[in-house]
TrEMBL record:
The keyword Transcription regulation does not apply. It comes from Thermohalobacter berrensis. The chain crosses the membrane at residues 14-33, 150-171, 183-204, 216-236, 300-323, 358-380, 400-420, 426-444. Gene3D superfamilies: Amino acid/polyamine transporter I. The keyword Transport applies. It is a multi-pass membrane protein. This is Transporter. InterPro entries: Na/Ala_symport. One of its GO terms (cellular component) is plasma membrane. Keywords: Cell membrane, Membrane, Symport, Transmembrane, Transmembrane helix, Transport. It is found in: Cell membrane.
Length: 461
């Protein structure tokens, strides 16, 4: 077992190593420059389109539900535990690198959704299927010729395996653990209830998932943000110090000893991507189901994901942790953490220190709802990956396996599962990034042509 754990640790080091980190951020920079930072230029329009009823096209869910489903899968333990882990492992400066990954990640999500709509197909059930496996196999074949199905198949395999851990068992374990710690609910009771609730939703397919996530995600995100803002504004005098800790340690790595800047960057970018999934390609699977035949408009909407997830929600978590004094920087420049906490317990302690008796419940309930929504969103991702690999009939079996794993994850120690899922989650990025880079000129041309056309229409009005 120790040998297996060591192998998985080494594999994780490769999957989330310097090459992947550089490729993730580099692709985001490339797409940001090529689209002239579309994620910021078109931000007001993206917000308008998000709530528009004017979208036309075939699909299974509305553009709003597509974004909420993708956010359901990304707003999870990464926003609560992931931020705390980044700070505990890489110091306060890691938050800066989370921001960097998100700042450029919006362009990656734009490109992913654009390609997802352009290359999606209609399956045997009349549902839309799309995402990296389709724009890899079909898009790269159209552009370069040859057979790229193997690369699409690899993405689907990595996504399918990752779904069991990072999309299911890790999340159900967080829900059960949180309910036991805060409310004394036995793990197996939480597992039974969670499995039943998940089963009720996923049996209805993407339409039911979309209807549930478009209610849960706005409510849970708003509730968590309000709780965080109460903490921040009641301790507003400590906020400048928190930002100072972030920026002063972003380029030195001194807080974690030895000036290991690479550690700060790695944990910041890796946890940022774990939070918003920009560059992994997973969100594109949800956007492919949108009732929107306009790739550019769906891309605008998709680009909001990184802003909402990381630049807003993760920043709220980071500020709460840093204003609470659970993390301090000594006169020697080294970081000290109360009781050597990390992950969700660090976030919970920070909230509870500043809102005694209430703060821990904000984190507990946040984890419950964030993780539940992630399980729903990742079920859809995993099912579409499996559909690409083995056909639509295999998905019916997958549903019941998924429900069973919700219960198993609630009652089982998941150190090994977490490691395996972390590896495959990182490996997902590689086929997707290859496609984004090789198809980037198409993304740039489609964006430029669309904007020229829109400008011309506006001038003629």
């Amino acid at each position: 077992m120790d040998a297996l754990q060591e192998f998985i640790s080494s594999a994780s080091g490769f999957a989330w190593g310097p090459f992947t980190i550089i490729l993730l951020v580099g692709t985001g920079i490339l797409l940001s420059l090529g689209t002239r930072f579309v994620q910021y230029r078109k931000l007001p329009l993206a917000l308008k389109l998000l709530f528009s009823k004017e979208h036309k096209g075939e699909g299974d869910i509305s553009p709003f539900q597509a974004l909420m489903t993708s956010l359901a899968a990304t707003i999870g333990t990464g926003n609560i535990a992931g931020v705390a882990t980044a700070i505990a492992s890489g110091g306060p400066g890691a938050v800066f690198w989370m921001w960097v990954s998100a700042a450029f990640g919006g362009a990656s999500k734009y490109g992913e959704a654009l390609l997802a709509i352009k290359y999606r197909i209609t399956n045997e059930k009349g549902e839309k299927s799309g995402g990296p496996m389709y724009y890899i196999s079909n898009g790269m074949k159209e552009r370069f010729g040859g057979n790229w199905n193997w690369l699409g198949w690899l993405f689907a395999l990595f996504g399918f395996v990752a779904s069991f851990g990072i999309g299911n068992m890790v999340q159900s374990n967080a829900v059960a653990g949180s309910l036991q710690e805060s409310f004394g609910v036995p793990l197996f009771i939480s597992g039974i209830i969670l499995a039943a609730l998940v089963g009720l939703v996923i049996v209805g397919g993407i339409k039911k998932i979309g209807k549930v996530t478009d209610k849960i995600v706005p409510i849970m995100a708003t509730g968590y943000i309000i709780g965080a803002l109460i903490v921040i504004f009641t301790n507003i005098s400590a906020v400048p110090k928190a930002f100072s800790m972030i920026f002063s340690n972003a380029f030195t790595g001194k807080a974690v000893g030895g000036g290991v800047l690479g550690t700060v960057i790695r944990f910041g970018v890796a946890r940022g991507v774990f939070s918003n999934e920009a560059g992994l390609g997973s969100a594109a699977i949800a956007h492919a189901a949108s009732k929107n035949d306009d790739p550019i408009r769906q891309g605008y909407i998709a680009s909001l994901g990184s802003i909402i997830d990381t630049l807003i929600i993760c920043t709220m978590t980071a500020l709460v942790i840093l204003v609470s004094d659970v993390v301090t920087i000594g006169s020697d420049g080294l970081m000290a953490i109360q009781d050597n906490l990390s992950g969700a317990p660090l976030t919970a302690t920070a909230f509870d220190n500043l809102l005694p008796g209430i703060g821990a419940y904000i984190v507990s309930l946040g984890l419950v709802f964030f993780s539940f929504s992630t399980i729903l969103g990742w079920f859809y991702y995993g099912s579409k990956c499996l559909e690409y690999i083995a056909g639509i009939k295999a998905v019916e079996i997958y549903k019941y396996v998924w429900i069973g794993l919700c219960f198993l994850g609630s009652i089982t120690s998941l150190k090994l599962v977490w490691g395996i899922s972390d590896v495959f989650n990182g490996l997902m990025a590689l086929p997707n990034l290859i496609a984004l880079i090789t198809l980037s000129t198409m993304i740039f041309k489609m964006t430029k042509d669309y904007e020229k056309k829109q400008d011309k229409l506006e001038k003629n009005i």
